[in-house]
Amino acid sequence: MTTTIPQSAPAASVADRPMVEAVDVHKRFGSLEVLKGITMSVERGQVVCLLGPSGSGKSTFLRCINHLEQVDAGMIRVAGETVGYRERNGRLHELREKEVAAQRRKVGMVFQRFNLFPHMTALENVIEAPVQVAGRSRSQAKEQARALLAQVGLAEKADTYPAQLSGGQQQRVAIARALAMEPEVMLFDEPTSALDPELVGDVLDVMRGLAESGMTMIVVTHEIGFAREVGDVAVFMDGGVVVEAGDPAQVLVDPREERTRAFLSKVL
Amino acid sequence: MTATQPSSTAAPEAPRGAPGARPGPIEAVPVRHPGRWIAAVLVLVIGIGSLSSILQNPNLDLPTVGEYLFKPLTIDGVLITLWLTAASMVMGVFGGIVVAVMRLSPNPVLSIAAMLFIWVFRGTPLLLQLIFWGFIGAFIPKIVIGIPFTSVEFWSFTTSDLIPATVAALLALGLNEMAYAAEIVRAGIQSVDHGQTEAAHSLGMSPAKTLRRVVLPQAMRVIIPPMGNETITMLKSTSLVAIVAGDDLMSNIREAYTQNYKIIPLLIVAAIWYLALTSILSIPQMWLERRYGRGFTGARPTIGSRVSTFTQSIALPSRESRAARASKKESAS
Which residues form the ABC transporter domain (chain A) (predicted)? Predict the structure, then answer.
């Protein structure tokens, strides 16, 4: 993992390229500049943890990766494809909404507020996209969904509606739902911030298992312990820029930058 | 071990003796509500009084009511009323969804067009719109299909042939309902958390699919109760059709009483039918509310539960509980 622009080799195949590649990403909401040039690259199979005070732009950056927010300047590539645009004859063409939707299938996202579909059972939540978007048969999707629910430890909750599940269980269903589309990279936007403390562990366990299975993950989190233990790279953001990035054991234990040090002393 | 067993099973019981025992149910003197009793008696006296005076009124003419209640004239009218209600609600709901989506569209032309439509059809009286559509032939005598701004005509109709009275009534009721339904649907769509849309998008669902599979089903929960009201209002509004021509219940009843002058008995016939129909309509509404309430908790009070709460709250202490309290007093002394 490097946080500088990778000097991509001229004839690099897709497999060699980073899974997620961000180059000088800028984003503003009205007069507020939230991202002031984020550059980072995430290799296949890496777990990157984004940390920083609220308002530092880490969630916005995450949302840019699957085009929930549009980037103002710079660009993001996922698996070699530019997010939201197509390059043709040296010019960028904006993608249609359908094409953006197709691009998002490669990227799974887990939200702070779970955002499960409340009118569907856990199983229906998980099979929705495979059936409706990927066009798989219901029986095939159900079989896969049951396996995924078992993987997150909720096999017996398949026919339960989200309102009857605890926050931790809802978040684990949400992870299963995102995995059902077989994404190449998973984004987690503060997945445990809305949970009661005793429910955080179950969700982190599922994420740890996912990391061990080789999934590429970008995790916005305040769980320093998780970042240190599971993360391959820790990125500390503040004020819309990357302040410091590197080995979690170094960034989170003995940071070079004063701002990182100040933040950690408040959180720990 | 075996020797100590009986004493060990008894042991946990011992400390739970007199001081630690689970307290019995509270026996307190309930609050009295004499006001409720007085109000109930008052309402009953007024109700029974006015009902008996109505029933003894010779102008009521119950035999005529009975005669007209199931006459073919009445039944035909009821069928037309039901047909008009159903057709204009279908037109209103589906048209309303389209107008609501247009209203929420980022395209300013669509959004403003929807706004203007709602402005006109919600802002003028239904009666006016009914008469307007009834006399549309006077406004636009001919309808022509051709190329706009040229004199090329492929087909032309006389408007009054194309739009007979029933179609005019349907147009008026349906278009008016579309405007109201659009606002109800818009409120429903906006009540769904934006996170739902984001979650659907992040799963690769297209905007259209997101609306159909995720947003609308959740909006339905908010949309159905006011739509039920709209349907009941519509059933009654169809009676306005009597002004233009229409063969609905009210038109037929009006036709009959202008001939035989039995106005009150015939109005009672119509009232009985309208009441019966609106009562029946609340059944599918309940069913739909339950269907789209899946996954959301929270029970609604039924009439039965409300009656039992009321009777509990006004009940005097029962004889048994009084006896129990008396015996307790005795044992205490």
Answer: 20-264
How far is the alpha carbon of B291 from chain A, nearest alpha carbon, in Å? 10
Distance from C-alpha of B144 to C-alpha of B142, rounded to nearest angstrom? 6
The closest alpha carbon to A44, from A67, A23, A19, belongs to A19
Contact (CB<8Å) A101/B296: no
Pick from A194, A218, A55: nearest CA to B195: A194
Rounded to a whole number of angstroms, the distance from the CA of B234 to the nearest CA of chain A is 29
Residue A164's CB is within 10 A of a number of other CB atoms, namely 13
Token pair for B21: 């025992």
Q: Give the minimum alpha-carbon distance from B194 to chain A in angstroms, rounded to a whole number.
A: 9
The ipTM estimated for the assembled molecules is 0.90
Q: Specify the pTM.
A: 0.75
Mean per-residue pLDDT pooled into runs of 10, chain B (333 residues): 45 51 84 92 96 86 88 92 94 94 94 96 93 82 78 76 80 94 95 95 93 93 90 92 82 90 91 93 84 66 51 51 54 51
Facing residues of A22 across strands?
A: A40, A76
Which residues does A contribute to its contact with B (CB < 8 Å)? Answer: 66, 68, 97-98, 101-102, 104-105, 107-109, 111, 113, 115-121, 128-129, 132-134, 161-164, 174, 177-178, 181
At a CB cut-off of 8 Å and minimum separation 6, what does B153 contact?
B144, B145, B146
What's the Cα-to-Cα distance from B314 to each of A62, B31, B39, B44, rounded to whole Å? 61, 9, 12, 16
